[in-house]
Amino acid sequence: xxNCILAVVLVSIAWCCxxxxxAPSGRWSEQRANEWFAKQPWLVGCNYIPSSAINQLEMWQVxxxxxxxxxxxxxxxxxxxxxxxxxxxxxxxxxxxxxxxLQRIEQFLAVADxxxxxxxxxxxxxxxxxxxxxxxxxxPRPHVHNSGWVQSPGADVLSDPVKLDALKPYVQGVVxxxxxxxxxxxxxxxxxxxxxxxxxxxxxxxxxxxxxxRQLLEKTFAxxxxxxxxxxxxxxIWRDFGGFRESPPIFQSMLTNSDxxxxxxxxxxxxxxxxxEAIKQKFNRPVICTEYMARPLGSTFDPVLGYLKSQRIGAYxxxxxxxxxxxxxxxxxxxxTYTAKPExxxxxxxxxxxxxxxxxxxxxIRRTTGQSx
Length: 373
What we know:
Elements: H1 6-18, H2 30-38, E1 44-47, H3 56-60, H4 67-79, E2 84-88, H5 91-96, H6 98-114, E3 118-125, H7 155-158, H8 161-165, H9 168-177, E4 184-191, H10 209-226, E5 233-234, H11 249-257, E6 261-264, H12 269-282, E7 287-292, H13 301-310, E8 314-318, H14 359-369
Parallel strand pairs: 1-2, 1-8, 2-3, 3-4, 4-5, 6-7, 7-8
Helix pairs in contact: 1-12, 4-6, 9-10, 10-11, 13-14
């Protein structure tokens, strides 16, 4: 989850728009995408995992599914005026007990709806540990950012075409179950699919990860479209492609398959503005920023959130409550040792007891969402 580089984005977007404009089978038309977006509230919220969970497995496995904490924390999200949250699923709970997994998703959606919050569900994720294991998860490594977050699928599955195809029932089972559910606002099919995790698990990653991930990405779009969801599909631009006149095929796939355009940007507002303007010049589709907000990098609510609202760009900050994910610590804690909490939090809004990291910041969020009016 690294800072987007504007020049890279500009070149890549230009390249993608130069390719044939034929839409993949089943992709929403621009008109349908924009009509859908016009009916939505401003999609504003956070990437959410309960403070009691170190990763997606601990969030969703039956032994550690913590609906009480979820209910309490989504009450805090409601108090900020959030209308949506982005939430990561995982294929292993489906493989353990598909019916139970669907029931827990239903319970989660019911609690979110109680707090007037919709949900963007993320189906796959290529960030952090490439060796996920079901069952009891390890304790957090002290003072390390996202020390227990796991990929879905892991490297063992991503490296095997037969195992990749075996993921189809998971995709179609979950998307098919909630394809007409008003509480699910968007399907984000694959988070940062070619992320090499260089500073953390890079040595454990597949040497051909980008190509293997592209294959899964394209399969997942096709599988999801087969069940005809009423919600849009997306997978977001996220990283520096190194000047990339060659423009990797996975980048093409992400943009040309998405019904709505999504992106990540952990930069200052000036960079966000330039990226948004470049995207809007090339795509006549709704735009959603599915990750932003890293205080030490200058990506702060004030003024980034206000700018995104002014452009009616969906806005999901990373993190919410200081908990077992430990994302108040910066990415660099994988390389540099920390022995105490940082004075300036990297992500997150609330302490574990619900008090805000910054009262001034929380008031700004509420003013921007209209919650303090």
